[in-house]
Specification:
- The chain has 12 helices and 2 strands.
- It has about 280 residues and is mostly helical.
- A two-stranded antiparallel ribbon has the order 1-2.
- The N terminus is likely disordered.
Length: about 280
Amino acid sequence: MKLQEHDARLDASVSGRRVPFVRLPSAVAQFVTKTLTIVGLEVRKLRHDSTELVTRAIQPALWLLIFGEVFTQVRAIPTGNLRYIDFMAPGILAQSVLFIAIFYGIAIIWERDLGIIHKFLVSPTPRTALVLGKALSAGVRGLTQAIIIYILALLLGVQVNWDPLALLGVVLAVVLGAALFSTFSLIIACLVKTRERFMGVGQVLTMPLFFASNAIYPVAIMPAWLRAIAHVNPLTYEVDALRTLMLKGQTSSFGLGFDFGVLLATTFLLVIVGGRLYPNVVR
């Protein structure tokens, strides 16, 4: 056995270079463990103070109960064979996730002021694991909003698709969307470094991201310049995936594979950038 292990290590070395694939499973396991540890820390914060989730649910509830119900009667927006409240419900879920995630970066600034970031940075935890852990914990918060939106949709008579695979797809779309926008928020926090500047930038970004998407009206009725922005807005693809999976008999405008591909690729890119910028928050 020792001879076989020696031969394996010898084969993994070429011209004196160390090939990392022998240690890859261990490295991946450590990365996953450290990422889940960060997620666990964030979830425990949520368990100790759940009032934020209740207050965050007020705005989407108002959108559905007032805006959605009124425009369902007016039929001012062409939504095909869908009632407007049905068309709008997945968009409001995406909006709720966006509003939670986009202000997630302010927690990084608070942690810096409390000295927590300094402790993270001197630990052996990879920077990308810290960022990804924060992103996935935002996904957990997003799922709580999904439960609230589903309850409201059920009360309003929205034709929800209860297929288990569809529900699993909604969970994945919510987690990816929250991870994407929370990481984007973290990057902003690393650049602006103060709470006042961060709040200003966050407020500037949320409404354009929301209105330049297909959350409350179809992309087809937008002017050409806004349609171009919508096609590069990740929220558009999150809404498309949610609308396809959440409602009965709906087909994706872009294809579910493309929707999830955009969300996954963008999240991956932002996590890498966030990992590089993460130490800047203390400088």
